[in-house]
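Re: the 155-residue chain
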Amino acid sequence: MIGIRGFRHTAIVVRNLDLMLDFYVAVLGLQVIRRVELDSAEFQYGIAVAGSRARVVHLAIPGSDTCLELFEFAAVEAPEAVPPSNAAGYRHVAFIVDDMEEACQTLRASGLQMLSRPVALNEPGVDPNLLFMYFRDPEGNIIELNNVSLPGQGG
């Protein structure tokens, strides 16, 4: 067993770092904690992409010791299409909010694509107070918002 002792970050490769940074800071309220530019041989070796250059920003998630990492590479491989919510592989990042209605109003005012309204699940083993919703960030990545922490998460 490896013995994982924490979760550090989730990374999103973006086409337009400035646009995405504006969204994640101004709309979602994340905070910039570090900016770096990477192009060293060690970086290229570590990500297994020769000749890579990237601008990287780490964003603090309020109430969490985890961060979101945005990468803007000098050359980006374009996906075939924006995958649907049920496509295999990494699919979304989820954030906890205090007020779902306020979050929905902010998203609507920002003109973002909401995939659903807040939904309550009436399923065994699911907190009856949980509301969740999906929307897409300005580059089409799926984000989930919900209002209840899992046990042991705090917040």
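The two ends are 29 Å apart (CA to CA).
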